[in-house]
Amino acid sequence: MTYTMPADLTAEILWYCTPVEVKAGELILRRDDTTTDLYIITRGEFKVFDDSRGEDFLLGILGRGCVFGEMAFLDGLPRSAAVRSVSDGSLLRLGEREFDRMVLKAPEASVRFLRALSEIVCRRLRVMNDALAGAALSGGPAGPEQEQELLNTIRAMHRSVRVELKKGD
Fold it and tell me: Which residue among 7, 50, 103, 135 is least enclosed by CB atoms within 10 Å?
């Protein structure tokens, strides 16, 4: 299972996106930022992490075809994670204005885009639900040991996602 935007759809919406070139180590998004742009990776690897507890907690490594920034794009709330480039890379950035233009000029592509984006979000949510259900079956996170077990489960889940992403390249 991969969490990528279909290549044919990416090519179709390319005209509404702004290409962005990034260098290795560049911070793309900060947690709690109020920007709402969405990004599609066309080249490179990107680390999604949470640094709210004083250290980087790795949430995932994303590659070609993957999307990030989708939550703020959809709900307008502050960013829930940070993203940094692991390698030099290329992105397609889609902002609210560009999306509004796409809706007017290419409504069918806009609907396909929203459906694909919804599918990506739902798949990620299902994986998280499965991880949380597994923790609940074992008594739930009641203390530091259980919290660590849940964090380890989430890390294992993200390693599995990374393997799946590599298969898709």
Answer: 7
How many separate domains does the chain show?
A: 1
CB of 72 within 8 A of CB of 32?
Answer: no
Task: Answer yes or no: pTM beyond 0.85.
Answer: no
Q: How far is CA 92 from the centre of its chain?
A: 13
Note whether residue 1 is domain-resident: no
- pLDDT, residue 109, reads 94
CATH number of the domain within which 99 lies:
2.60.120.10
Is residue 32 situated within a structural domain?
yes
- Does residue 108 lie in a domain region? yes
Strand order in the sheet with 18-22: 18-22, 89-94, 38-43, 67-68
Residue 1 has pLDDT above 50, yes or no: no
Which residues form the domain of 97?
7-168
